[in-house]
Amino acid sequence: TSKILAENILNYKDGKWGLINLKGKEILEPIYEDIYSLKGIEGKIITVKDEKLGIVDVDGKELIPNNYLDIKSLGIDTDLYIVKNKEKKDKRIFGGSFYFTGGYIIA
């Protein structure tokens, strides 16, 4: 089963999803329970592994590891995301090479 996502093709193999580009090169190996686009954001893809969410770009580079129950973008013109674990106190804001947690920016 295959369908196009962000100029790549979703590849379904042995019950898991991965990504290949239009030339057939593997971008993400098929190890994910689900892969889908981040609503309103181009070039970023949500991955689901072991029931946890993460984000990769269209080249397969991991931007946020699969450690979170929820991920929301802070907007179309930003690369900042709010990620949340089970407890409300573990909300973080990821962006570039830092994340924000508990009132501090950690580089």
List keywords for this structure.
13 strands; 4-stranded antiparallel β-sheet; disordered C terminus; 5-stranded antiparallel β-sheet; 63% strand; mainly beta; 107 residues
Summarize the structure in words:
- It contains no helices and 13 strands.
- It has strands at 2-5, 8-13, 16-21, 26-32, 34-37, 44-49, 52-57, 62-68, 70-73, 80-84, 91-95, 98-101, 104-106.
- The radius of gyration is 14 Å and the shape is globular.
- Residues 101-107 have low confidence and may be disordered.
Short description:
This protein has 107 residues and is an all-beta fold. The chain has no helices and 13 strands.
Write the layout of secondary structure elements.
Blueprint: E1 2-5, E2 8-13, E3 16-21, E4 26-32, E5 34-37, E6 44-49, E7 52-57, E8 62-68, E9 70-73, E10 80-84, E11 91-95, E12 98-101, E13 104-106
Antiparallel strand pairs: 1-2, 2-3, 3-4, 5-6, 6-7, 7-8, 9-10, 10-11, 11-12, 12-13
